[in-house]
Structures are given as structure tokens and as C-alpha cells.
Specification:
The complex is a heterotrimer of chains A (307), B (359) and C (316). Chain A has 307 residues and is mainly alpha-helical. Chain A contains 15 helices and no strands. Chain C has 2 domains: 56 residues, no CATH class; 239 residues, MetI-like (MetI-like fold, Orthogonal Bundle). Classes of the chains: A mainly alpha (307), B alpha+beta (359), C mainly alpha (316). Chains in contact: A-B, A-C, B-C.
Chain lengths: 307, 359, 316
């Protein structure tokens, strides 16, 4: 390194005058501009998170002074405890706790069910097409674009007819239905990208529909399943509409409960408690996001392939 | 004499990896230079440095006598043609040719004149209104050449321009480029890994390996007098036969054969007994009647025969070492056949076995 | 003899024709049908039958419960005479054009800046993308506070000394919708950025070299050469945002509940309100059926474009 620098300087002096070696690295105005823009943008994106965190750690008197961005002068974790344990929605004052556990139940059941079904769909659509299977797939893709409101009401009627409306199995079924288009597409694209010779070889070896699925396809689809799990976990946890309509009071998910706590108009508005509740609700998908990192981006890209 | 392109003590490092190592290269006005080498030898990197697309770590680049080491690519007086054509896909051919000139705010009629001239030279006038997707690979590459042409520059850079084309088109366009050079007489620097392109196009070939130019010479010299084992092995297909042995005086000896090297012109007189490699090209080996006129002859058994149509490649052994030779297709050869084979050692090349350099 | 040879030849020809499409339909496999039962039920039961029922009930005077008293187009006539609906449709158009337009521009801009070989790219990417991990309800609530005139940005800036500063879009009906757009942008623009950045990275590096040799300034290269090359990324993010716009519901509920007045009403809210609080299923279904129209139009457009490109490919 040093010797090279020396030699280049030496030849520069001896051989010829004028520019030699790398172009001097000027810190140009445009370079400063790029970073200035990106940092400003980053501040815009971070601002709400910062406000949420600092407000949730303040007492109400300090909030009323209106120093939105300031770090709390008196740190308190009271709002967090209240948001979790005793915040009120209407008459009930149990905090977010029940909503959290409802969301856990809904997510823990819906994610595996919807993924297993979609995996089989994608597998069958790639290797075991039958008369009409492509049509069904077309309908499913169409379903990815249909506004939920168009099917919600008949679905309510249908689910109440079979006694599933406003039950835990009912909301699981609903999440499975509405997750199916994208997940099926995800798995179908994955399985069709596999070499068809793999399937042919297994057929020659005498394996059937389920044999090939369990012994060959399932072990190979681990990476795409990670993407699917991320996609579904955040999607179902963040759902609001289906939770409002289909879950019923007993199984109300966290997002719905959060909205109810915040919009409860009785009494004074406790902003710190509301912010703590909001952070708590956002915590699970945020943890998934930061833990999964690059996989999350891939999940978004996978969700985008539906286009 | 003023060099068209001059590279002085040029080095390029990517972190710890040294890609180009103090290269010097002087290219005369109107010369066609081919940079040839295996992938990763630094030939494309060198071209990108000349173009100004990469910053050098040390050293200088002169184009047309002007130090352009720190200049922007557009100010270097170069045009460049790429492997993937790199045409702007949403613009018509006419737009592709003129976009750079328009951005430089050249006068309309001058742009018109240049585009017309380039289109005429390359015979792409009927294509001017089309978009790149509607063109064949060969047509696209003509347009890409045209884009370099309209810049009206002294130096053309080609970065493996024919690698994306199929064999037939490749040889057609190769001739086209040669014709273009004959007509325009610009300096051209051409990067390829294809030795046929290099041999047919170049005034001089620079063979590169690991960021160092191994030999810079005209194709004839490169082919007949390679400076080291690498160059000897890289050029020629099928590649040169290498026989291991020892040199004692003017005789080359393997375990059981001795070949007299009388008539061979040594570049460095060897002293005493040294281990050497004798290289002899397959096409310099004769068989049958022709072999009997050669200074060195041996009897041998044919092992494998590969008929190529125009000629035949045959495999045999000389003193236990494998030897291939090229025979006319009329010569009937069958495996197991005993034949007489001969060559003139003076046409061969002798390399020091330790350093690989030509003796 | 010749005949046998011929038929053998044609059989081989047939086999090779089949081999071109190796994923052609195979012999019927009932296991495959059993395995995809849930898909069959969903595709037929939900995405066909439910939609048909929605359309049927839109022609009835169903109130709390569905009935089959057909009243023709009355619900649609009433729908298009209802200010609340017309405003909803206007709102969703304004919201859609603004949020898709801004999303595209800002997303591409961010992607371009991210593409400048910057330090800490991963950090910036995480920052731009994390809001997307949060639900739209959370997004709505957060921005509702940010826009609160007494506690939010407006008050914070006033305390810095700029006492005339006004920035509380949600309290005025003329500006409330723009507030929702900003919240939605915060949530989703990172995704557009990520898709656009992937598109930028997919552009042939030699295009950039050619542009540099031609002396085309960087910004012109991004705008006139690279942007038109990213049709795939643009289409993907466009469709992604379109589906989001048609469905827009959560964020409005959390941010404004459709107010002040009806200034941020949306078709999706209209439907839900009519099948719940307003107990007028027939009206709700008419509105829902109308929501299907733009989706059908988009799909039709997609088919048309595909058909046109197929025809082009056929001619070439």
C-alpha cells in the first residue's frame, strides 16, 4: 500500500506532469445533498415512533405542556402498565391484555392452517393439474383483487348458518380464505420454478401425490415457507376489518381493542396510555420485521408478485 | 511520434485485490489493438479504465496526447461498444444514435448529418425508426457501433461486442468491423476472449493474465514465437503440444528420445543442462510422405482420430508423452495404425521449464 | 410397412409436441382434487357464490336480514342520489390519485437516492420500511396524534417561537383527506421504494456505462433512460397500491372515522356502515357491487394489454 503510493508519486514526478492516479475524492455538493435528503427522510419516518415512545413515558401533566418531541423530564412506566392491564373500552377495564391473547390465538391457528392449505394448492397446481384446476386458480387470483366488502356480507350469513360466526374457528376460516390467493400464488410460483425432472424422477420411483408432497416437496419448501410465515403473521396480526366483523366480542383481536381504547370518549384522554397501547400493538410485527430483516423484504416482494 | 493512446504505469486495486499491475501500453494512431485473455485477467477492467468508467489507483492515461486520467468519459474523445449492446430500449434507433448529441446541445443539422453518415456506413438506414426490441442481435450491435460512430471520436473501445451473437453472425460482424476499421482508420481497442477474433482483427494483440500483459505483438509473432508457456498454450486450437525434457547443448532429450535443435534460434542462450519444455504446434507436424522430409521423424501408433471435416486431428505418443497433430482430411488414419510422423524443431518453441519463459 | 412407419413418426411428433409443455394436464388424479378441496370451496363458495349473492341482494330491499323481495335498480338509484356515497367516491378518487401519484414519485426518488452507493444503506432501508410492518390502525392513530392541534406538530412548532404556524389537517374538512394521504404515504412508501430499488438494481450495468460515455447527466439517465426501463417495477407497485386504495378502510377509521363531517368517507366504510349500524343490507350490497366495477375494469385492462402484446409477439 505505502510502497505503491510512493511509487506512483515517484513516477508522477519523473515520467510526466499532470493528473496521475485516482481522481481526487472531492466531497461534492451533490454528495452532501444525497445524505441530507436521506437523513431528512429518515427523520420523517422515525418521528412518529419517537413521539410514541417519549409520550408513552411521560405523565399527563407534562404532555399537556405540549413538548411533543422532548424526552420526558420525569420518566414513568405507569402508562405501559395501565395500557396492558386496566385501560378501559366502554365498561370493560382489562387493558389490552385480552386482545393480545386473542391475537395470539388467532394468529397461532390461522398461520399454520392457511399455509398448509396454500402449500398443497400450489403443489397440486404445479404438478397435478386436473380439469378445471386452472380455472379455480384464475378465480383465486381474481379474489386477490376483490375488495373485501363485496364478499363480507354473504360470508357473515354463510358462517352464521353453520354456527361459526363470531367464533374463534370462524375468524381462522376467514383468515384462511383471504390469505389463500396470495399464498397459493406464492407456492405455485415456487413449485413451478423447481425442475420438473425432480417430479418425474419421483413418479418413476413410484411415489404418489402425498408421497411426493411429504418426502420431496415439503423439505424443499422451507425457505419459501419462512417468507409465507412472515407475510401471514404480520398480515393477520395487523388485520382490523375481519377482526371487527367476524371475531365477535369474545375473540376481539388487539388492533380492534386498541382502536376501541383510543376512541373511547368517556373521561379524559390519556395520551400516554394510548401511545403505550399503540406501541404494544405494533410490537409483535415490529419484532418480526427486525428479526427477519432481509426475509421481510423478500416477503414483500413475494406479495408483490401477485401483480 | 504521437501515440493515440498511452498508458503509463497503470495500477488498479479493489481493496486488497490487485487487478491491474503497473501496465504500460502505447497504441499508435489508427492501430487495432486486441486485449486477449481468459476471464478475470483484467482486460475489460483495463478497457473501463481507458474509458474513464473506473478510477485508477495509480498511473496515467493519455488519449490523443492529452492527459485524461481525471477526465469524464464523455470528454476523453472515445466511443464504446458493449457486449449487451446497451441500447436505450424505449428510444428508436435514430434517438439512440442522437441522444448523446442532443444532450450535448449540438446543432440539429449537424446531428442529422452525423446520424445519416453512421447509418449509411453501417447500412442501418431502414432501421432508423424502429426500436431495439424489433431488431435482431446483429442489427442491435450495428446500432451500438453507430452510437460510437456519431460521436466522431478518434478512439473506439469494444468490450466483447460479439459475445452475445451466434457463431454465424459473429463471423459476419467480425468482417464488418474489420471493414469499418479499414474505412475509418480510427484507433480501436478491442477486448475479447475469443482467439480467432483476436488473430483476425488485430494489428497487435496484447495477451493478458492476472492483470499483466504477457506479450504484445502482431498475431504472427504471437502465434509463432510466444514469449512464454501461457501465451503458447492460450493461442491455437487444438493447443500446442508440450514435451517435457532436458536441454543439453543443442539437443532436446526426453527419457528415450533425443531431438536435435539445430536451426532453432535461441533468444537466450542456455548454459549447461536445463529442464525445458519443447512446444510444437499440431499443424506443424507432418504425417506419412511429408513426414519423411522433416528433420526429425519418429514411428508411432495412432490412438484416437477426430475428423473435423476440413482436416483431421489425431492423437499419438512420442516417447510416452501425448502428441496431437493435424492432418489433411484426405489422409486415411485409423486407430492402431503405425505411421511415420515428423516435424521441424526449428519451428517449435523452447521454454524454460522453471520460469516458463521462451529460450 | 410404410403405414406403420408413418404412424410411428406421427406418434413421435405428437410426443414431442407434448414434451414442449411438460406441465400439461396429466391423467385425472382424485388425490389432487381431495388435496385442493379447501381451494375449490374458497374459489367457488366465496369468490363466486358470495359475490353472486352480494349482487342479488343489491336488487332487493333487504334491511337487517337478507330477503329476496326484488325492487329492480332502486338501490342503485338511491345510492347515486346519496351525497354520502358520491362524496365517498370522490374521496376515494382524490385519495387514490394523490397517494398513488405521491407514492410513485417519492418511492422512486427515495430509491434513486438509495442507489447512490451510500453508506448505511441497510439502516436507511430499515427506517423507510418499518412503518409497513405496523398495522394501518396503528398508523392512523399515530398520525392522528401528530396532527392534533393542541399536542402535535403544530403546537411543538409554535412553542419554538413560530406562533402563527398551522399544521392540523384533520380538524378541517377541506384538508382532512390530505392528512390521511400523508399517513398512508408514511406507512406504504417504503415498499414502493424497495420495489423500485430492486428495479433499479436490475438495470443492465452497461446501460449506465453507455450513458456515461454519451455524457448524459445522471439525473437525465434516471429520468429518460432508466425509468422507462422499469415497467415491471412500476406496474407491480401500481397494482399493489391500487388494491390498497380500493380497500382503504382501517386507516380512515383510526384517523378520522370518516370525518370531520363526511370529508373522509370512503366506499368501504359506506358498505360496512350499511350492513352494521344502518341495517340496510340492500343498499350496502349495491355499494359493494359498485366497488367491484373498478376492479373489473383493471382486470379487463390487464387482459387487453396481454392480448395486445400477444398479438404483437405473434406478428413479430
Amino acid at each position: 500500500m505505502t510502497s505503491e503510493a510512493l511509487s506512483s508519486r515517484a513516477t508522477g514526478a519523473v515520467a510526466a506532469t499532470g493528473p496521475s492516479g485516482p481522481k481526487p475524492n472531492k466531497l461534492t455538493l451533490s454528495r452532501v445533498g444525497v445524505y441530507a435528503f436521506l437523513i431528512l427522510a429518515a427523520l420523517f419516518f422515525l418521528m412518529p415512533l419517537w413521539v410514541m415512545v417519549v409520550t408513552s413515558l411521560k405523565g399527563m401533566p407534562e404532555i399537556r405542556q405540549g413538548h411533543l418531541f422532548n424526552w420526558p423530564s420525569m420518566l414513568t412506566f405507569e402508562p405501559w402498565l395501565k395500557a396492558w392491564d386496566t385501560a378501559c373500552t366502554g365498561r370493560d377495564c382489562n387493558g389490552l391484555k385480552p386482545g393480545f391473547w386473542n391475537s395470539v390465538k388467532i394468529t397461532a391457528l390461522s398461520v399454520p392452517v392457511s399455509i398448509v392449505i396454500a402449500m398443497i394448492n400450489g403443489y397440486a397446481l404445479s404438478f397435478w393439474r386436473y380439469k378445471g384446476s386452472e380455472f379455480l386458480f384464475g378465480v383465486l387470483v381474481f379474489g386477490a383483487f376483490v375488495p373485501y366488502q363485496v364478499v363480507i356480507y354473504p360470508l357473515i350469513i354463510g358462517l352464521s348458518k353453520v354456527g361459526l360466526f363470531a367464533t374463534l374457528p370462524g375468524i381462522v376460516v376467514v383468515h384462511t380464505i383471504f390469505g389463500m390467493p396470495i399464498l397459493t400464488l406464492l407456492y405455485r410460483n415456487f413449485f413451478t420454478s423447481l425442475p420438473v425432472e425432480l417430479f418425474k424422477a419421483a413418479r418413476v420411483d413410484g411415489a404418489g401425490f402425498w408421497g411426493i408432497f411429504f418426502r420431496i416437496m415439503l423439505p424443499m419448501s422451507v425457505p419459501i415457507t419462512v417468507v409465507a410465515v412472515i407475510l401471514q403473521t404480520t398480515g393477520i396480526w395487523n388485520d382490523f376489518l375481519f377482526g371487527t366483523v367476524f371475531a365477535g366480542r369474545e375473540n376481539m383481536p388487539m388492533t380492534v381493542q386498541l382502536n376501541n381504547i383510543v376512541t373511547t370518549t368517556t373521561g379524559i384522554r390519556e395520551y400516554n396510555v394510548n401511545m403505550a397501547a399503540t406501541i404494544l400493538t405494533a410490537a409483535v410485527p415490529l419484532v418480526v420485521y427486525f428479526v427477519s430483516g432481509k426475509w421481510f423484504v423478500r416477503g414483500i416482494a413475494a406479495g408483490a408478485v401477485k401483480g | 511520434m504521437q501515440h493515440s493512446v498511452s498508458i503509463k504505469d497503470l495500477s488498479l486495486n479493489f481493496g486488497q485485490v490487485s487487478v491491474l499491475k503497473s501496465l504500460d501500453l502505447d497504441i499508435a494512431q489508427g492501430e487495432f489493438i486486441v486485449l486477449l485473455g481468459p476471464s478475470g485477467c483484467g482486460k475489460s477492467t483495463l478497457l473501463n479504465c481507458i474509458a474513464g468508467l473506473l478510477d485508477v489507483s495509480s498511473g496515467q492515461i493519455f488519449i490523443g496526447g492529452k492527459n485524461v486520467t481525471w477526465e469524464e468519459p464523455k470528454d476523453r474523445g472515445i466511443g464504446m461498444v458493449f457486449q449487451s449492446y446497451a441500447l436505450y430500449p424505449q428510444m428508436t434507433v435514430e434517438r439512440n444514435l442522437s441522444f448523446g448529441l442532443r444532450v450535448a446541445r449540438m446543432k440539429k443539422d449537424e446531428i442529422e448529418r452525423r446520424v445519416q453518415r453512421a447509418a449509411e456506413i453501417l447500412q442501418i438506414e431502414p432501421l432508423l425508426a424502429r426500436k431495439p426490441v424489433e431488431l435482431s442481435g446483429g442489427q442491435r450491435q450495428r446500432v451500438a457501433i453507430g452510437r460510437a460512430l456519431v460521436r466522431d471520436v478518434d478512439v473506439f473501445l469494444f468490450d466483447e461486442p460479439l459475445s452475445n451473437l451466434d457463431a454465424k453472425l459473429r463471423s459476419d460482424l467480425r468482417v464488418e468491423i474489420k471493414r469499418l476499421h479499414a474505412r475509418l482508420k480510427n484507433t480501436m481497442i478491442y477486448v475479447t476472449h475469443d482467439q480467432i477474433e483476436a488473430m483476425t482483427l488485430a494489428d497487435r494483440i496484447a495477451i493478458m493474465k492476472n492483470g499483466v500483459i504477457q506479450q504484445l505483438a502482431d498475431p504472427h509473432t504471437i502465434y509463432n514465437k510466444p514469449v512464454n508457456l501461457f501465451v503458447a498454450g492460450f493461442i491455437g486450437s487444438p493447443s500446442m503440444n508440450f514435451l517435457n525434457g532436458a536441454l543439453d547443448g543443442s539437443a532436446f532429450a526426453t527419457e528415450n528420445t533425443s531431438i536435435s535443435l539445430g536451426g532453432y534460434q535461441f533468444t537466450k542462450a542456455p548454459s549447461g543442462k536445463t529442464n525445458v519444455v519443447l512446444g510444437i504446434r499440431p499443424e506443424h507436424i507432418a504425417v506419412g510422405e511429408d513426414a519423411r522430409k522433416m528433420p526429425f521423424q519418429f514411428e508411432s501408433e495412432i490412438e484416437i482420430v477426430e475428423p473435423m471435416g476440413a482436416d483431421t486431428i489425431a492423437w499419438t505418443k512420442l516417447g510416452g508423452q501425448s502428441v496431437t497433430f493435424r492432418a489433411a482430411s484426405e489422409v486415411a488414419l485409423v486407430p492402431g495404425q503405425k505411421v511415420t510422423i515428423g516435424f521441424d524443431p526449428a519451428r517449435g518453441s523452447v521454454f524454460d521449464a522453471a520460469s516458463g519463459d521462451r529460450l | 410397412m410404410t403405414q406403420v412407419a408413418q404412424s410411428g413418426g406421427s406418434a413421435a411428433g405428437l410426443a414431442s409436441a407434448v414434451a414442449v409443455k411438460p406441465r400439461m394436464r396429466r391423467r385425472f388424479n382424485y388425490q389432487s382434487v381431495i388435496g385442493t378441496m379447501p381451494m375449490i370451496a374458497t374459489a367457488v363458495g366465496v369468490f363466486i357464490i358470495c359475490i353472486i349473492f352480494s349482487i342479488i341482494w343489491s336488487f332487493t330491499n333487504s334491511k337487517l336480514f337478507p330477503n329476496f323481495n326484488f325492487i329492480g335498480l332502486d338501490q342503485y338509484v338511491r345510492l347515486w342520489r346519496t351525497d354520502r356515497w358520491i362524496i365517498s367516491v370522490q374521496n376515494v378518487f382524490v385519495f387514490g390519485i394523490l397517494s398513488i401519484g405521491l407514492g410513485m414519485v417519492v418511492g422512486y426518488l427515495l430509491a434513486v437516492f438509495m442507489d447512490q452507493r451510500i453508506k448505511g444503506e441497510d439502516l436507511f432501508r430499515s427506517i423507510f420500511l418499518y412503518p409497513f410492518a405496523m398495522s394501518l390502525v396503528v398508523t392512523g392513530l399515530v398520525w392522528q396524534w401528530m396532527f392534533d392541534p393542541n399536542l402535535g406538530i403544530q403546537e411543538a412548532v409554535r412553542q419554538l417561537g413560530w406562533t402563527g404556524f398551522e399544521f392540523a389537517p384533520l380538524v378541517k374538512s377541506e384538508t382532512a383527506l390530505y392528512g390521511v394521504v400523508l399517513g398512508g404515504l408514511w406507512n406504504g412508501v417504503g415498499v414502493t421504494m424497495a420495489i423500485m430499488l430492486a428495479g433499479l438494481r436490475g438495470v443492465d450495468a452497461e446501460i449506465w456505462k453507455a450513458a456515461k460515455i454519451d455524457g448524459i447527466p445522471t439525473w437525465k439517465t434516471y429520468l429518460f433512460i432508466v425509468l422507462p426501463m422499469m415497467r415491471g417495477a412500476i406496474a407491480t407497485s401500481f397494482i399493489l397500491q391500487c388494491t390498497g386504495v380500493v380497500r382503504v378502510f382501517d386507516i380512515v377509521i383510526a384517523m378520522t372515522q370518516g370525518g370531520p363531517g363526511v370529508s373522509t368517507q370512503m366506499p368501504a366504510i359506506y358498505v360496512i356502515q350499511h350492513i352494521t349500524d344502518r341495517v340496510n343490507v340492500g343498499q350496502g350490497m349495491a355499494a359493494a357491487t359498485m366497488m367491484l366495477v373498478p376492479v373489473m375494469a383493471l382486470i379487463g385492462l390487464q387482459y387487453f394489454l396481454q392480448w395486445r402484446s400477444n398479438r404483437k409477439a405473434g406478428r413479430a
